[in-house]
Amino acid sequence: MDVSTALQLLFSGLSIGAIYALVALALVIPFKASGVLNFGQGQMVTLGAYIALTLSQAGLPYYAVVPLTLLIAGLAGMAIERVFIRRLVRAPEFTIVIATFALGLMVQDAIRLHWQDNDFPLPVPFSTDPWRFGSVRVNPVFVWIVLATVVLVVVLAAFFRHSRAGKAMRAVSQNQEAARLMGISVEGVFSATWAIGTAIGALAGILFAPVTGINPGIGDLIIKAFVAAVIGGFSSLPGAVVGGLALGEIETFSGALAGSTLKNVSAFVVLILMLLVRPYGLFGTAGARRV
User: Fold this and answer.
1) For position 25, which CATH number holds?
2) DSSP string, 182-215
3) pTM
4) CA neighbours within 13 Å on the CB side: how many for 125?
5) Mean pLDDT, residues 52-75
6) Domain tally for the chain?
7) CB atoms within 10 A of CB 132
8) Residue 92 sits in which domain range?
9) What is the pLDDT of residues 235-256, one digit of tens each?
């Protein structure tokens, strides 16, 4: 493999890994606060893509579509937490798993009722012609995916470190009872984290849509996001990002070196190895709660 091919694969893996990282973050943020793992998060990715499609078809420009989609998705996440999850938070873990899975299927089937299984494009406001750097070709859409992910990670880091709301979320994730004694609204934090998680999932759908097209199956990448979150450790936000990027590179290089079959299997091989060697992930801790 020559240097130009390696660089080409490196950037391709980085872009798909950025999508995995976003969805992994969307899983980990509400899980850290509420202890509930949303098995319907993949359908939140799908929902975000279709919200963006609807707004785009209504004639709104792309740079208005993105923030409006995130806002609508965030409100939907808050509604789901308030109406369904809050009532089930003390239920047996298996009940919560089935409930979130069922909610996801309901969203996906509702989308299919109207949109069927057709593919729809989501136009972007820039040329998609590849950029050439010597013998390396770079898709501008991939650049946009990576840049958007970097910006989001920086914003989240600043939010959790410096803002009052972010510090409250960190306190709730560490000890809910102590947070209550400090006057923090734990239920409000739950709603906020579900809103953030749903909005991030929607962002992943918006970014991924120009690559694959919009269809009800776009949320199937949740499986790889679960793997990425496990690799990084479900108790760690930086771990979700590192796990997603690492998984993207592993898949890309294994596919180039050994074909598409190994590419599809490699994520699960890495998952099994990680569970055997370090079951709590690269940045996780043995005290992390699991659902």
Assistant:
1) 1.10.3470
2) TT--HHHHHHHHHHHHHHHHHHHHHHHHHHH-B-
3) 0.90
4) 8
5) 94
6) 1
7) 9
8) 3-288
9) 788 889 999 999 999 988 888 8
